[in-house]
Amino acid sequence: MKPIAKSSKLANVGYDIRGPVLDKARQMEEEGQRIIKLNIGNVAAFGLMPPDEIVQDMIHNLPSQVAAGYTDSKGLFAPRKAVVHYTQEKHVTGVTVDDVYLGNGASELIAMSMNALLDAGDEVLIPAPDYPLHTAVVSLSGGTPVHYRCDEGSGWLPDLDDIRAKVSPNTKAIVVINPNNPTGALYPVDLLKDIVEIARQHQLIVFADEIYDKTLYDGNEHTSIASLADDVLFVTFNGLSKNYRSCGYRSGWMVVSGEKRYAKDYIEGLNMLASMRLCANTPGQMAIQTALGGYQSIKDLVAPGGRLLKQRDLAWEMMNAIPGVSVVKPKAALYMFPRLDPKVYPIADDQQFAYELLEQERVLIVQGTGFNWPQPDHFRLVFLPNLDDLTEAIGRIERFLAGYRKRHSL
Protein backbone atom coordinates (compact mmCIF):
# COMPACT_ATOMS: atom_id res chain seq x y z
CA MET A 1 0.00 0.00 0.00
CA LYS A 2 1.31 3.44 -0.89
CA PRO A 3 1.82 5.86 2.02
CA ILE A 4 -1.01 8.35 2.41
CA ALA A 5 0.36 11.80 1.69
CA LYS A 6 -0.41 14.76 3.89
CA SER A 7 -2.91 17.03 2.17
CA SER A 8 -1.34 20.10 0.63
CA LYS A 9 -4.15 22.06 2.26
CA LEU A 10 -2.57 21.28 5.62
CA ALA A 11 0.69 22.98 4.76
CA ASN A 12 1.46 26.19 6.62
CA VAL A 13 -1.78 26.34 8.58
CA GLY A 14 -0.16 27.32 11.87
CA TYR A 15 0.61 25.59 15.13
CA ASP A 16 0.44 21.80 14.85
CA ILE A 17 -0.36 20.34 18.28
CA ARG A 18 1.22 17.05 17.20
CA GLY A 19 4.64 18.60 16.58
CA PRO A 20 8.02 17.48 17.95
CA VAL A 21 7.78 19.62 21.08
CA LEU A 22 4.49 18.00 22.09
CA ASP A 23 5.81 14.57 21.19
CA LYS A 24 8.80 15.17 23.45
CA ALA A 25 6.54 16.33 26.27
CA ARG A 26 4.44 13.17 26.05
CA GLN A 27 7.59 11.04 26.09
CA MET A 28 8.90 12.83 29.16
CA GLU A 29 5.60 12.41 30.99
CA GLU A 30 5.53 8.71 30.16
CA GLU A 31 8.98 8.50 31.75
CA GLY A 32 7.56 10.03 34.94
CA GLN A 33 8.97 13.53 34.55
CA ARG A 34 6.77 16.39 35.77
CA ILE A 35 6.33 19.15 33.21
CA ILE A 36 4.94 22.60 33.94
CA LYS A 37 2.62 23.35 31.03
CA LEU A 38 2.39 26.95 29.89
CA ASN A 39 1.25 25.94 26.40
CA ILE A 40 -2.53 25.58 26.36
CA GLY A 41 -5.58 27.28 27.84
CA ASN A 42 -7.13 24.09 29.20
CA VAL A 43 -8.41 25.71 32.37
CA ALA A 44 -9.59 22.52 34.12
CA ALA A 45 -6.03 21.16 34.09
CA PHE A 46 -5.12 24.02 36.44
CA GLY A 47 -7.95 23.44 38.89
CA LEU A 48 -10.30 26.08 37.46
CA MET A 49 -13.64 24.29 37.31
CA PRO A 50 -17.07 25.22 35.93
CA PRO A 51 -19.49 27.00 38.25
CA ASP A 52 -21.33 24.41 40.35
CA GLU A 53 -24.70 25.70 39.16
CA ILE A 54 -23.85 24.71 35.59
CA VAL A 55 -22.63 21.27 36.66
CA GLN A 56 -25.75 20.58 38.72
CA ASP A 57 -28.04 21.70 35.90
CA MET A 58 -26.35 19.30 33.48
CA ILE A 59 -26.56 16.45 36.00
CA HIS A 60 -30.26 17.20 36.50
CA ASN A 61 -30.97 17.19 32.76
CA LEU A 62 -28.84 14.21 31.72
CA PRO A 63 -31.47 11.52 32.44
CA SER A 64 -34.05 13.33 30.31
CA GLN A 65 -35.25 12.18 26.92
CA VAL A 66 -34.23 15.53 25.46
CA ALA A 67 -30.61 15.13 26.56
CA ALA A 68 -30.39 11.71 24.92
CA GLY A 69 -31.75 12.77 21.55
CA TYR A 70 -30.95 14.97 18.59
CA THR A 71 -32.09 18.57 18.70
CA ASP A 72 -32.88 21.05 15.96
CA SER A 73 -29.78 21.38 13.81
CA LYS A 74 -29.20 24.91 15.14
CA GLY A 75 -29.80 23.83 18.72
CA LEU A 76 -32.43 23.90 21.45
CA PHE A 77 -34.70 26.93 21.60
CA ALA A 78 -34.05 27.94 25.24
CA PRO A 79 -30.25 28.25 25.05
CA ARG A 80 -30.49 29.99 21.67
CA LYS A 81 -32.95 32.45 23.20
CA ALA A 82 -30.49 32.99 26.06
CA VAL A 83 -27.82 33.85 23.47
CA VAL A 84 -30.23 36.35 21.88
CA HIS A 85 -30.66 38.01 25.27
CA TYR A 86 -26.88 38.06 25.64
CA THR A 87 -26.49 39.85 22.30
CA GLN A 88 -28.97 42.42 23.54
CA GLU A 89 -26.83 42.98 26.63
CA LYS A 90 -23.89 43.54 24.26
CA HIS A 91 -25.99 46.07 22.28
CA VAL A 92 -26.05 43.94 19.13
CA THR A 93 -29.38 44.68 17.45
CA GLY A 94 -31.70 42.70 15.21
CA VAL A 95 -30.73 39.19 16.36
CA THR A 96 -33.44 36.53 16.45
CA VAL A 97 -33.33 32.92 17.59
CA ASP A 98 -33.01 31.92 13.94
CA ASP A 99 -29.70 33.82 13.73
CA VAL A 100 -28.10 31.70 16.49
CA TYR A 101 -26.28 28.42 15.86
CA LEU A 102 -25.08 26.21 18.70
CA GLY A 103 -21.97 24.11 18.15
CA ASN A 104 -19.51 21.68 19.67
CA GLY A 105 -17.42 24.57 20.90
CA ALA A 106 -16.79 27.75 18.93
CA SER A 107 -14.10 25.90 16.95
CA GLU A 108 -16.62 23.77 15.06
CA LEU A 109 -18.61 26.87 14.15
CA ILE A 110 -15.54 28.79 12.99
CA ALA A 111 -14.80 25.94 10.58
CA MET A 112 -18.45 25.82 9.47
CA SER A 113 -18.51 29.56 8.80
CA MET A 114 -15.52 29.36 6.45
CA ASN A 115 -16.66 26.15 4.75
CA ALA A 116 -19.90 27.87 3.77
CA LEU A 117 -18.15 30.95 2.41
CA LEU A 118 -14.93 30.20 0.61
CA ASP A 119 -14.04 29.07 -2.89
CA ALA A 120 -10.57 28.57 -4.32
CA GLY A 121 -8.75 31.89 -4.55
CA ASP A 122 -10.87 33.69 -1.96
CA GLU A 123 -8.84 35.57 0.64
CA VAL A 124 -9.49 36.20 4.32
CA LEU A 125 -7.61 38.76 6.40
CA ILE A 126 -6.36 37.23 9.66
CA PRO A 127 -4.27 38.90 12.38
CA ALA A 128 -0.61 38.07 12.97
CA PRO A 129 -0.12 36.75 15.54
CA ASP A 130 -3.34 34.77 15.35
CA TYR A 131 -5.16 31.93 16.99
CA PRO A 132 -4.02 29.41 14.35
CA LEU A 133 -7.38 27.68 13.98
CA HIS A 134 -8.51 30.64 11.86
CA THR A 135 -5.60 30.25 9.45
CA ALA A 136 -6.12 26.50 9.31
CA VAL A 137 -9.83 26.55 8.51
CA VAL A 138 -9.39 29.16 5.80
CA SER A 139 -6.79 26.96 4.14
CA LEU A 140 -8.82 23.78 4.58
CA SER A 141 -11.89 25.51 3.13
CA GLY A 142 -9.98 26.27 -0.06
CA GLY A 143 -9.27 29.91 0.72
CA THR A 144 -6.06 31.85 1.19
CA PRO A 145 -5.18 33.34 4.58
CA VAL A 146 -3.62 36.81 4.35
CA HIS A 147 -2.12 37.98 7.63
CA TYR A 148 -2.34 41.60 8.72
CA ARG A 149 0.11 42.90 11.30
CA CYS A 150 -0.72 43.64 14.91
CA ASP A 151 1.67 46.23 16.32
CA GLU A 152 3.45 45.32 19.55
CA GLY A 153 4.46 48.95 20.01
CA SER A 154 0.82 50.01 20.23
CA GLY A 155 -0.19 47.25 22.64
CA TRP A 156 -0.69 44.64 19.91
CA LEU A 157 -3.49 46.57 18.20
CA PRO A 158 -4.17 45.83 14.52
CA ASP A 159 -2.28 48.01 12.07
CA LEU A 160 -5.07 49.65 10.06
CA ASP A 161 -2.76 50.74 7.25
CA ASP A 162 -1.53 47.17 6.87
CA ILE A 163 -5.12 45.93 6.72
CA ARG A 164 -5.99 48.47 4.04
CA ALA A 165 -2.90 47.56 2.03
CA LYS A 166 -3.80 43.87 2.05
CA VAL A 167 -7.39 44.15 0.88
CA SER A 168 -7.64 42.84 -2.68
CA PRO A 169 -10.46 42.07 -5.11
CA ASN A 170 -10.36 38.51 -3.78
CA THR A 171 -10.81 39.49 -0.12
CA LYS A 172 -14.07 38.16 1.29
CA ALA A 173 -13.74 38.72 5.03
CA ILE A 174 -11.67 39.90 7.96
CA VAL A 175 -11.14 38.01 11.23
CA VAL A 176 -11.03 40.06 14.44
CA ILE A 177 -9.89 38.25 17.62
CA ASN A 178 -10.93 40.49 20.51
CA PRO A 179 -9.97 39.94 23.30
CA ASN A 180 -6.92 38.56 21.64
CA ASN A 181 -5.27 35.19 21.84
CA PRO A 182 -2.22 35.04 21.99
CA THR A 183 -1.41 38.62 23.05
CA GLY A 184 -4.08 39.50 25.63
CA ALA A 185 -4.87 42.74 23.79
CA LEU A 186 -8.28 44.39 24.07
CA TYR A 187 -9.36 46.62 21.20
CA PRO A 188 -10.74 50.14 21.82
CA VAL A 189 -14.02 51.26 20.27
CA ASP A 190 -12.45 53.74 17.83
CA LEU A 191 -10.22 51.05 16.35
CA LEU A 192 -13.16 48.67 16.00
CA LYS A 193 -15.10 51.39 14.21
CA ASP A 194 -12.21 51.83 11.78
CA ILE A 195 -12.21 48.10 11.05
CA VAL A 196 -15.97 48.24 10.45
CA GLU A 197 -15.43 51.11 8.02
CA ILE A 198 -12.86 49.10 6.07
CA ALA A 199 -15.31 46.20 5.93
CA ARG A 200 -18.08 48.54 4.80
CA GLN A 201 -16.00 50.09 2.02
CA HIS A 202 -14.92 46.71 0.65
CA GLN A 203 -18.09 44.73 1.44
CA LEU A 204 -16.28 42.31 3.72
CA ILE A 205 -17.80 39.96 6.28
CA VAL A 206 -16.46 40.52 9.80
CA PHE A 207 -15.77 37.31 11.72
CA ALA A 208 -15.49 38.20 15.41
CA ASP A 209 -13.90 35.73 17.83
CA GLU A 210 -14.99 36.99 21.26
CA ILE A 211 -14.53 33.86 23.39
CA TYR A 212 -12.72 35.84 26.15
CA ASP A 213 -15.16 38.75 26.35
CA LYS A 214 -15.62 38.41 30.13
CA THR A 215 -11.99 37.64 31.00
CA LEU A 216 -11.03 41.29 31.47
CA TYR A 217 -8.59 42.94 33.89
CA ASP A 218 -8.14 46.35 35.50
CA GLY A 219 -11.74 47.42 34.99
CA ASN A 220 -11.56 47.16 31.21
CA GLU A 221 -14.76 46.67 29.23
CA HIS A 222 -15.32 44.74 26.02
CA THR A 223 -17.21 46.09 23.03
CA SER A 224 -18.67 43.63 20.57
CA ILE A 225 -17.77 44.82 17.09
CA ALA A 226 -21.19 43.69 15.85
CA SER A 227 -22.78 46.38 18.03
CA LEU A 228 -21.18 49.15 15.97
CA ALA A 229 -23.07 48.84 12.67
CA ASP A 230 -26.11 47.26 11.06
CA ASP A 231 -25.03 47.68 7.42
CA VAL A 232 -22.12 45.17 7.59
CA LEU A 233 -22.48 41.40 7.95
CA PHE A 234 -21.04 40.08 11.23
CA VAL A 235 -20.51 36.50 12.36
CA THR A 236 -19.66 36.40 16.07
CA PHE A 237 -18.32 33.39 18.00
CA ASN A 238 -18.46 32.74 21.71
CA GLY A 239 -18.94 29.88 24.14
CA LEU A 240 -18.55 28.44 27.61
CA SER A 241 -14.98 27.13 27.38
CA LYS A 242 -13.08 30.04 28.90
CA ASN A 243 -15.38 32.45 30.73
CA TYR A 244 -17.16 29.49 32.35
CA ARG A 245 -14.18 27.10 32.60
CA SER A 246 -16.02 24.44 30.59
CA CYS A 247 -13.59 23.50 27.80
CA GLY A 248 -14.61 19.84 27.75
CA TYR A 249 -18.33 20.56 27.52
CA ARG A 250 -17.76 21.70 23.92
CA SER A 251 -20.54 24.26 24.06
CA GLY A 252 -20.33 27.31 21.82
CA TRP A 253 -22.45 29.56 19.66
CA MET A 254 -22.33 31.60 16.48
CA VAL A 255 -24.49 34.66 15.82
CA VAL A 256 -25.18 36.12 12.37
CA SER A 257 -26.10 39.81 12.58
CA GLY A 258 -26.05 43.07 10.68
CA GLU A 259 -26.67 43.24 6.93
CA LYS A 260 -28.25 39.87 6.16
CA ARG A 261 -30.31 40.84 3.09
CA TYR A 262 -27.54 40.03 0.62
CA ALA A 263 -26.29 36.96 2.44
CA LYS A 264 -29.16 34.56 1.76
CA ASP A 265 -26.99 32.05 -0.13
CA TYR A 266 -24.33 32.16 2.59
CA ILE A 267 -26.89 31.67 5.35
CA GLU A 268 -28.42 28.80 3.42
CA GLY A 269 -24.96 27.24 3.29
CA LEU A 270 -24.62 27.62 7.06
CA ASN A 271 -28.01 25.98 7.53
CA MET A 272 -27.03 23.10 5.27
CA LEU A 273 -23.75 22.49 7.10
CA ALA A 274 -25.51 22.70 10.47
CA SER A 275 -27.96 20.03 9.28
CA MET A 276 -25.18 17.79 7.96
CA ARG A 277 -23.63 17.43 11.42
CA LEU A 278 -27.17 16.84 12.83
CA CYS A 279 -26.70 18.97 15.96
CA ALA A 280 -24.32 20.01 18.70
CA ASN A 281 -24.07 17.76 21.76
CA THR A 282 -27.27 18.22 23.73
CA PRO A 283 -25.95 18.16 27.32
CA GLY A 284 -23.54 20.95 26.41
CA GLN A 285 -26.41 22.98 24.98
CA MET A 286 -28.27 22.61 28.26
CA ALA A 287 -25.50 24.41 30.13
CA ILE A 288 -25.80 27.66 28.14
CA GLN A 289 -28.99 29.14 29.58
CA THR A 290 -27.87 28.60 33.17
CA ALA A 291 -24.39 29.97 32.44
CA LEU A 292 -25.54 33.17 30.78
CA GLY A 293 -28.30 33.83 33.29
CA GLY A 294 -26.53 32.93 36.50
CA TYR A 295 -23.92 34.61 38.66
CA GLN A 296 -20.86 35.51 36.58
CA SER A 297 -18.13 34.03 38.75
CA ILE A 298 -15.44 35.01 36.23
CA LYS A 299 -15.68 38.49 37.78
CA ASP A 300 -14.23 37.15 41.04
CA LEU A 301 -11.26 35.62 39.22
CA VAL A 302 -10.30 38.83 37.39
CA ALA A 303 -11.07 41.33 40.18
CA PRO A 304 -8.42 42.70 42.57
CA GLY A 305 -7.31 39.75 44.68
CA GLY A 306 -8.70 37.29 42.13
CA ARG A 307 -6.64 34.32 41.09
CA LEU A 308 -6.33 35.14 37.39
CA LEU A 309 -5.39 38.76 38.03
CA LYS A 310 -2.69 37.78 40.54
CA GLN A 311 -1.27 35.22 38.11
CA ARG A 312 -1.24 37.71 35.25
CA ASP A 313 0.55 40.31 37.36
CA LEU A 314 3.13 37.82 38.63
CA ALA A 315 3.91 36.47 35.16
CA TRP A 316 4.16 39.94 33.64
CA GLU A 317 6.47 41.24 36.36
CA MET A 318 8.73 38.18 36.36
CA MET A 319 9.04 38.00 32.57
CA ASN A 320 9.80 41.71 32.21
CA ALA A 321 12.54 41.37 34.85
CA ILE A 322 14.52 38.93 32.68
CA PRO A 323 17.27 40.67 30.66
CA GLY A 324 16.37 40.98 27.00
CA VAL A 325 12.71 40.07 27.53
CA SER A 326 9.79 42.47 27.17
CA VAL A 327 6.07 41.80 27.52
CA VAL A 328 3.02 43.92 26.79
CA LYS A 329 0.74 43.67 29.82
CA PRO A 330 -2.40 41.72 28.85
CA LYS A 331 -5.70 43.53 29.33
CA ALA A 332 -7.73 40.36 28.81
CA ALA A 333 -7.68 36.60 28.15
CA LEU A 334 -5.23 34.07 29.63
CA TYR A 335 -2.03 34.67 27.67
CA MET A 336 0.89 36.94 27.05
CA PHE A 337 3.29 37.05 24.10
CA PRO A 338 6.82 37.83 25.36
CA ARG A 339 9.46 39.20 23.01
CA LEU A 340 13.03 37.93 23.10
CA ASP A 341 15.38 40.68 21.92
CA PRO A 342 17.16 39.20 18.87
CA LYS A 343 20.37 41.04 19.84
CA VAL A 344 20.39 39.18 23.14
CA TYR A 345 18.82 35.93 21.94
CA PRO A 346 19.78 35.28 18.29
CA ILE A 347 17.21 32.52 17.79
CA ALA A 348 17.08 31.04 14.30
CA ASP A 349 14.45 28.34 14.97
CA ASP A 350 11.96 29.09 17.73
CA GLN A 351 10.51 25.58 17.64
CA GLN A 352 13.98 24.27 18.45
CA PHE A 353 14.18 26.90 21.18
CA ALA A 354 10.92 25.59 22.72
CA TYR A 355 12.21 22.00 22.40
CA GLU A 356 15.44 22.81 24.25
CA LEU A 357 13.57 24.69 26.98
CA LEU A 358 11.35 21.64 27.49
CA GLU A 359 14.25 19.21 27.44
CA GLN A 360 16.43 21.19 29.86
CA GLU A 361 13.90 22.78 32.21
CA ARG A 362 10.69 20.74 31.74
CA VAL A 363 8.64 23.83 30.89
CA LEU A 364 6.31 23.63 27.89
CA ILE A 365 5.54 26.75 25.81
CA VAL A 366 4.45 27.37 22.22
CA GLN A 367 6.80 29.16 19.85
CA GLY A 368 5.63 32.42 18.30
CA THR A 369 5.78 31.23 14.71
CA GLY A 370 3.12 28.68 15.69
CA PHE A 371 0.76 31.67 15.82
CA ASN A 372 1.82 32.84 12.36
CA TRP A 373 4.17 35.50 13.73
CA PRO A 374 6.82 35.91 11.04
CA GLN A 375 9.97 36.16 13.20
CA PRO A 376 11.36 33.60 15.69
CA ASP A 377 11.50 36.14 18.53
CA HIS A 378 8.31 35.54 20.54
CA PHE A 379 6.51 32.79 22.38
CA ARG A 380 3.11 32.44 24.03
CA LEU A 381 2.95 31.99 27.78
CA VAL A 382 -0.23 30.78 29.51
CA PHE A 383 -0.53 32.18 33.03
CA LEU A 384 -3.08 29.63 34.29
CA PRO A 385 -0.85 27.71 36.79
CA ASN A 386 -1.17 28.65 40.45
CA LEU A 387 1.27 31.21 41.84
CA ASP A 388 3.76 28.65 43.15
CA ASP A 389 3.92 26.70 39.89
CA LEU A 390 4.03 29.89 37.86
CA THR A 391 6.90 31.23 39.94
CA GLU A 392 8.76 27.94 39.50
CA ALA A 393 8.11 27.81 35.75
CA ILE A 394 9.25 31.37 35.04
CA GLY A 395 12.25 30.83 37.29
CA ARG A 396 13.20 27.90 35.08
CA ILE A 397 12.69 30.01 31.95
CA GLU A 398 14.93 32.69 33.47
CA ARG A 399 17.61 30.09 34.20
CA PHE A 400 17.40 28.71 30.66
CA LEU A 401 17.65 32.19 29.14
CA ALA A 402 20.63 33.01 31.35
CA GLY A 403 22.40 29.96 29.97
CA TYR A 404 21.39 30.95 26.44
CA ARG A 405 22.86 34.43 26.91
CA LYS A 406 26.07 32.98 28.30
CA ARG A 407 26.50 30.54 25.42
CA HIS A 408 25.89 33.16 22.76
CA SER A 409 28.05 35.87 24.31
CA LEU A 410 31.21 33.74 24.12
UniProtKB/TrEMBL annotation:
Keyword rRNA processing (UniProt): no
Keyword Membrane: no
Domain Aminotransferase class I/classII large stretches: 35-397
SUPFAM superfamilies the UniProt entry points to: PLP-dependent transferases
One term of GO molecular function: transaminase activity
Pfam families: Aminotran_1_2
Entry keywords, A to Z: Aminotransferase, Pyridoxal phosphate, Transferase
Co-factor(s): pyridoxal 5'-phosphate
EC number per UniProt: 2.6.1.2
Family designation: Belongs to the class-I pyridoxal-phosphate-dependent aminotransferase family.
Protein name (Swiss-Prot/TrEMBL): alanine transaminase
